[in-house]
Amino acid sequence: MHIFVKAAELGSFAAMAEELRLSPQGVAKHVAWLEERLGARLLNRTTRRQSLTDIGRSYYERCKIVLAEVDAAESIALEMKATPSGTIRVNAPVTFDAYALALFITRYLDRYPETQIELALNDRMVDPIEEGFEVIVRIGELADSSMIAWPLGPIG
After folding, report:
1. What is the pLDDT of residue 125?
2. Per the count of CB atoms within 10 A, which of 4, 87, 95, 150 is most buried?
3. What is the spatial distance between Cα 27 and Cα 31, in angstroms, rounded to a whole number?
4. Burial class (CB in 10 A: 0-12, 13-18, 19+), 22
């Protein structure tokens, strides 16, 4: 859709190819694939110019709306990634240094006031996926190699 919209706006595959650093043939293949998928010609093309068909014009207008929504969704995701918010579920053993954990949580909440911490203290091994924990603190070796671990410091 993006290639079709840009090609329609720029008026030529060559201009579109230059902007996206593709070959004009590559742009033509993208548009041809889209036309084949839709079962309709979107652009009338000659060696010197191109113009939208009636179907192409309607499709172009809807594509602009869809692509604007995609841009908005990506912006929201990037903004949310840049500024943490929401609830973070944390699980730690009862025997873990409660003072150090409280200090870390307090600093984190001061830095990211849009977040909340839900802390569960227990010594059993939890399933982060099944139980919905984003952070798990454990003492000892990591048994599941699909998890990501960061050492917090020596035990002692």
Report:
1. 85
2. 4
3. 6
4. middle
Q: Can you give the three-state secondary structure of the chain, one letter per residue?
A: CHHHHHHHHHCCHHHHHHHHCCCHHHHHHHHHHHHHHHCCCCEEECCCCEEECHHHHHHHHHHHHHHHHHHHHHHHHHHHHHCCCEEEEEEECCCCCHHHHHHHHHHHHHHCCCEEEEEEECCCCCCHHHHCCCEECCCCCCCCCCCCCCCCCCCC
Per-residue pLDDT of the chain (156 residues; tens, 9 = 90+): 988 998 888 887 788 788 878 888 888 898 999 999 999 999 998 777 889 999 999 999 999 999 999 999 999 888 878 888 889 999 998 877 777 788 889 999 999 999 999 999 888 888 888 999 999 888 777 776 677 888 777 665
Amino acid, res. 17: A
User: Contact, 109 vs 138, CB < 8 A?
Assistant: no
Estimate to the nearest angstrom the gap between the alpha carbon of 14 and the chain centroid.
31
